[in-house]
Amino acid sequence: MGELVKTIAKALVDNPDEVFVSEVEGRQSLIIELKVAQEDMGKVIGKQGRIAKAIRTVVKAAATKENKRVVVEIIQ
């Protein structure tokens, strides 16, 4: 799941070298933390959070196959 988020984020930003993804796994859920450069934050979030919502939707669909709950957090 982390690789999926990383691939999507790298395609969106101007500084793909500054995209970092970390995964925190629990019993029933997986938290994916996405960190990008400050100037790329708007490109990942999008207007009114539309791009962030789309990323979460794609990851959620992929996680459904594995019967896991995935949360994507965009951090600074």
TrEMBL record:
It comes from the Bacteria. Its main location: cytoplasm. It holds the Pfam family KH_KhpA-B. It is found in: Cytoplasm. Keywords: Cell shape, Cell wall biogenesis/degradation, Chaperone, Cytoplasm, RNA-binding. One of its GO terms (cellular component) is cytoplasm. CDD domains: KH-II_YlqC-like. The keyword Cytoplasm applies. PROSITE patterns: KH_TYPE_1 (PS50084). GO terms for molecular function: RNA binding. Belongs to the KhpA RNA-binding protein family. PANTHER family: RNA-BINDING PROTEIN KHPA (PTHR34654:SF1), UPF0109 PROTEIN SCO5592 (PTHR34654). Forms a complex with KhpB. A probable RNA chaperone. Forms a complex with KhpB which binds to cellular RNA and controls its expression. Plays a role in peptidoglycan (PG) homeostasis and cell length regulation. This is RNA-binding protein KhpA. It comes from Marinisporobacter balticus. The lineage of its organism: Bacteria, Bacillati, Bacillota, Clostridia, Peptostreptococcales.
